[in-house]
Amino acid sequence: MARDYYGILGVDKSASESEIKKAYRKLARQYHPDVNSSEEAQEKFAEVGAAYEVLSDPEKRRVVDMGGDPLGGPGEAGGGGFGGAGFGGMGDIFDAFFGGGGGGGSRGPRSRVQPGSDSLVRVTLDLEEAATGTQKEIQIDTAVLCKTCHGKGSADGAKPTTCQICQGAGEVQSVQRTMLGNVMTSRPCSNCQGTGEVIPNPCGSCGGQGRVRERRNVTAKIPAGVTTGNRVRLSGQGEVGPGGGPAGDLYVEIREREHPVFVREGDDLHASVRVPMVEAALGSEIELESILGEDISVRIEAGTQPNDVVNLRGKGMPNVRGGAPGDMVVHLDIAVPTHLNSKQKDALRKLRELEKEGPKLVDKDNAHSGSLFSKLRSAFSGR
C-alpha cells in the first residue's frame, strides 16, 4: 500500500511547492536530532525527509498522485524503502539551523577564547548615602585571569594543538540507524569542548581554562540620587572569559534601607511634624533639617488645620540624572493635649467662652480637607 506522503507533511494534495517546503521546514525543526533526541523523533525526522524528497520532485509526486509509491518495495512504483531516500532537501533544514550547507550541518569549532559573562551584586544604602553619593567597597566571588599562565592555559607556554578526536572540527558526527533509514547527527567534541584545540600541557592552577575563581574587592562609586532598583555599571569588572577572554561588566544594584523619618516617593521626601495645638492656632516658626543636613526654617501659619501640608521646593533628593531635585513635603500633625494642669484647663475654658459657636453638624461639602467626610470622599472617588 502506497504511503500517504501528503499526510506525513500535513498538506493537501493541491499544496504548492512553497507550502510543501514550509511544512517540511516546520516538521524538520521539530524532529531534528539536535532538538529532540528520542528514537521516535529520529524516525519521524527520517519520514519527513523522505516525504519532502518525494513531493518536491515533480516526477515522484506524479507517481504518488497516480496512486503509486516512488520509494515503495517490489510491486510498487519505484524501488527501495525510506532508507534508500537520498534526502536531497536536507540542506534546507541545515541552512535553517546552522546557516550553512547540508553537508552534515557542521557548525565548525568555536573559539577557545570566549568573552566573560556579566555579574550582578546588590548593595544596601542609607537614605543619606543615596542623597549625597558614596563609594562602597564590595567583595565579590568571580572568575579572574590565571596569574600562573596569564590566561594561556598552558604550563609551558606551548600553543594549542589540533584535537585528534575531532580533527579540529570541534564536533563529532555519528550515524544512527532507525527503521526508516540512517540519520547523521553532530555533537560538540568532549575532548576539546567544541574548540577543535587542546592544551598539550595544561596549567596546574587553572586546568587549562585560563581563569580561576577568586574573591576580590571592587570599589563602586555610587552617584547622588540613586534609588532602589538603579544599577551602576563597572565596565570590565565582571567575569574573565574561558581561555582568558575579556571580562564582562559588573552591575551594582541599589537597595535602600527604610528611613526613620523620611518616606521617599521618587525624588520627593515626605516627613511628618507634630505641631502643638496652640502653635497651630496662633502660628509659629519651627526649625527642620533636610536629608542633606541643611537647617530649614518653616513657617506654621495661624489657623493651621490637621493634615495641612507645607511644600519645601528643592529640599528633597537630588536627581540622579542631574535634573531638578525633589521637594521635601512636610505633613503637619496637630497635637491635642491629653493631660492638662489646672492653669491650662482654665485657659481653655476661657477660650471656649469666647467661642461664638459650639460643636455642630456641618454640611459635608464645607468640611475642611482633613475631615472625615473629606477622607471618605477621597477613598470612594479614588483621589
Describe this structure in words.
The protein is an alpha+beta fold. Helices cover 23% and strands 26% of the residues. Among the domains are: 1-70, Helix Hairpins, CATH 1.10.287.110; 262-352, Sandwich (HSP40/DNAj peptide-binding domain). The protein has 9 helices and 15 strands. It has a 4-stranded mixed beta sheet with strand order 10-11-15-14. The chain has a 3-stranded mixed beta sheet with strand order 1-9-8. A hairpin with a 5-residue loop joins strand 12 and strand 13. It is found in: Cytoplasm.
What is the topology?
Blueprint: H1 5-9, H2 17-31, H3 39-55, H4 58-65, H5 90-98, E1 119-125, H6 127-132, E2 134-145, E3 161-162, E4 171-178, E5 181-188, E6 197-198, E7 211-222, E8 231-234, E9 250-256, E10 263-265, E11 268-276, H7 277-282, E12 284-289, E13 295-300, E14 309-312, E15 328-335, H8 342-354, H9 372-381
Parallel strand pairs: 1-9, 11-15
Antiparallel strand pairs: 2-7, 3-6, 4-5, 8-9, 10-11, 12-13, 14-15
Helix pairs in contact: 2-3, 2-5
Subcellular location: Cytoplasm
Keywords: Chaperone, Cytoplasm, DNA replication, Metal-binding, Repeat, Stress response, Zinc, Zinc-finger
Binding site for Zn(2+) 1: 146, 149, 203, 206
